[in-house]
Amino acid sequence: YGYAPEYYCRDTNTSIYAEVCVPAFTEKITPVTLDVKEVIDNDYCFDEVLTVCEETSEFVDREICTYEYAREDVSADCTTTQVTYAENSETMKVTTCSPSGYGTPGYGHGEHQYCRQEYQTQSFKVPLVSEPKYETCA
Question: Is this prediction's pTM over 0.70?
Answer without folding.
Answer: no
